[in-house]
Amino acid sequence: MAEIIEPPVHEGDQLPGHESQMDQKPDWQPRYPGSGRLEGKVAIVTGADSGIGRAVAALYAREGADVAILYLCEHDDAQDTKKFVEAEGRRAIAIPGDLGSKEFCERAVQQVGDAFGRLDVLVNNAGEQHPDKEITDITEEQLKRTFQTNIFSMFFLTQAAMPHLKEGAAIVNCTSITMYKGAPELLDYSSTKGAITAFTRSLSQNLVEKGIRVNAVAPGPIWTPLNPFGGQRPEKIPEFGKDTPMKRPGQPNEVAPSFLFLACEDSSYMSGQVLHPNGGTIVNG
């Protein structure tokens, strides 16, 4: 079995980061009433304790889906997400664990099947990033861990989910603008996002005859715990997102509708595609 690099839960007492501890809270609540676009569906959303994942889980619940919240260790944030899903009248379960572990992914998917009896949407959103000025600053352990969390987990979860996904199901992966324009201090992170885009395009062709659609979302700079809790250098936080044409970072609830569109029948003629909520940056991809 492949070596499992433990996640950096205690790195500087920061990572992976709690939204509840942020002074400036992200906007994640859905902005509009639901219209039943996911009525009766069951979704797994990874990294749903906070940030984009929380916004996606909340919007899916508003649109009628029961939601499984997969997360690492931020129990307070995950419980807040769970409470919101339940307040929308939907069922929710919160499952903590390391998505870089194939065993955990298999166990989590089985737990979702036992609880809800079906699986219709898989959202591979969880990720980690660590800024480094030089390529020589990236340790072997960090390199392995970043790939383990960001792309290996998508293989593990998709493999575990396949027996549960039927015709009409959808898989939505989270890639990044860094895949398209590069990121000089996020070499390992942006490399995983390139892998995720290739994975999305290839998997879409692999599953299209089964009636399972696979697409992705490539957010630009979005205000989530990932950035102030170690994902960006502290001196860069005040300028975060200001280099976009809109001159600001995006909010999670500005990204979640892309994940909704790709999960529901509105996008029934789309597979292998990437949506770009990024503040107006043109990436042609």
Give the SSE map.
Layout: E1 42-46, H1 51-62, E2 66-71, H2 75-87, E3 92-96, H3 102-116, E4 121-124, H4 140-161, E5 170-174, H5 178-181, H6 187-207, E6 213-217, H7 227-231, H8 252-263, E7 274-275
Parallel strand pairs: 1-2, 1-4, 2-3, 4-5, 5-6, 6-7
Helix pairs in contact: 1-2, 1-8, 3-4, 4-6
Description:
By secondary structure, the protein is of the alpha/beta class. It has eight helices and seven strands. The chain has a seven-stranded parallel beta sheet with strand order 3-2-1-4-5-6-7, sandwiched between helices. The longest helix has 22 residues. It starts with 41 loop residues before the first strand and ends in a 10-residue tail after the last strand.
List SSEs in N-to-C order. EHEHEHEHEHHEHHE
Computed structural class? alpha/beta
Helix content: 25-40%
Overall pLDDT level: 91
**How much strand?**
5-15%
| Largest beta sheet: strand ordering | 3-2-1-4-5-6-7
Distance between the termini: 36 Å
Radius of gyration: 17 Å
